[in-house]
Structures are given as C-alpha cells and as structure tokens.
Amino acid sequence: MDRNPKQYVAQRLEGDTAIDANWDKSIWANMSTGKLSFFMGKKPDHFPKTQFKVAYNNKYIYVIFKVDDQYIRAVSRGYQASVCLDSCVEFFFTPGGDISTGYFNLETNCGGTILMYHQISSGLHSKPLEDQELDNIEIATSLPSLIANEIVEPTSWTLEYKLPISILGKYTNVAKPAPGIKWKANFYKCGDKTSHPHWLTWSFVDKPNPNFHSPGFFGILAFE
Q: What's the pTM?
C-alpha cells in the first residue's frame, strides 16, 4: 500500500446544500471518495470502513463521513468534550501549505458533539474555539446524540457538517479555498473507549503509538 502523503481534490459547490447527513444526495454523487486505509498502533480487530468527501464554496468547507461500524458509543456531551473516547471522526488541517503556522483539529463523535482547537503543535499555544464560533458549524448525524449502551450490531452511520471559513482567520492566516489552493490535512477515525478501540488514518502516519497530532504526516487537500 502506498505510504506517500495522500491527496484529495475538493470540488467547488455552486450554491449551498442542506446539511442532513445524506451520503447519497445528488451533490455528493460525482465527488471523489477518500478512504481511511491505514492504522496506528497494533492492527485493530475492528477496522471500520470509513469514507469521506469534501466540497467547498466561498463561505464554507463541506465534509461528510460514512462509517460501516460496530461497537458504537457516544457519551461525550457539550462543546470541547472528549469526543475521541467515543466513536469519532476527525478532520485535522492547516488552512494553507505551511504547517509551522499550526493546525486545527475538528473532532466530532457519531452523535454530533464537536471539539475544535487551533494549536502550533500538540498542546503548544493550544486555543479552543469559542462556543459562539462553534455554534456556526451546522452539523447533522444519522445517529442519536447519546448512545450510552454500546451498539454491538454492524451499523452504518453518516455525519455531515459545513465549516464557516470565516471563523478560522482569528487564529491563523487562511489561504481561502479557490482553484489551485492547497491545504495540508489528515482524516481520522477512532474509538478510544469503545470495546474495540482503533486509530485509523487517511494519510499514513509513521509513528509506533497512536498520535493524530502529527502534522508532519498531513496529506494535501487541494481545491479544484
């Protein structure tokens, strides 16, 4: 399997779209699919098939995930809760090509709870986004917000959000998405405190222990 940094090309979306966690709706039909094929740590016995798609316009980045999962939980509630302990999908990105300017980690559990920080490196100059900024991220999921009793049956779930580009500029310089612009990014799936923990990545991360805060291994998010 090719371990070179991945590249995903995000297509421009004309107009807007309803955020409803519908993987099969028309706007996503002809867009390329990214797949999480790598893992960190020991190879997990549960390796959920995790896919994503990304689009953009002048105001928003649109992201949708589809996960063919099992052993699903969602108990974290409220902004900046520890969603990585739940069944969780994550989008880490530098809104430009220079990772020395830092990165955002946008983490969402399967129930739609959001954690989002900007930091220079893991824990260095780490700043949580404010509640009123996170209020502007419209998000939808196919699962309930609370799953206290782990779902053990095979279950497919989807999660979709649109991220306002305008909330990023307070924290760093932003190369506004447009044809030819490239960001650095990685996409992740985890479930630290599920009964079958796993740490999956889109672009390969060459570290022996799970650590998603590894911008040196980010792939490329290119805008068409």
A: 0.98
Asked if residue 138 is part of any domain, the answer here is yes
∠ Cα 28 204 69 (to 5°) = 55
Q: Is residue 1 part of a domain?
A: no
Residue 163, domain CATH: 2.60.40.1190
What is the predicted pLDDT for the residue at 124?
77
Amino acid at 72: I
Question: Strand runs (DSSP E) across the chain, as ranges?
Answer: 7-12, 34-35, 38-39, 49-56, 60-69, 72-74, 88-94, 103-109, 114-119, 127-128, 138-141, 147-151, 155-164, 182-190, 199-201, 219-223
Q: How far is CA 205 from CA 17, 128, 169, 208, in A?
A: 33, 24, 27, 9
Distance CA(3)–CA(15), nearest Å, equals 36
pLDDT, tens digit (0-9, with 9 covering 90-100), for 153-212: 999 999 999 999 999 999 999 999 999 999 999 999 999 999 999 999 999 999 989 999
Q: Where are the alpha helices (DSSP H) in the chain?
A: 26-29, 131-134
Tell me which residue range forms the domain holding 37: 7-223
2 is a domain residue: no
Q: Does some domain include residue 28?
A: yes
Task: Quote the number of domains for the chain.
Answer: 1
Look up residue 187 and give its two tokens.
């996409």
Cα 8 from chain centroid (whole Å):
13
Instruction: Tell me which residue of 35, 36, 30 sits closest to 11, measured CA to CA.
Output: 30
* Look-up of token digits 């989807």: 158
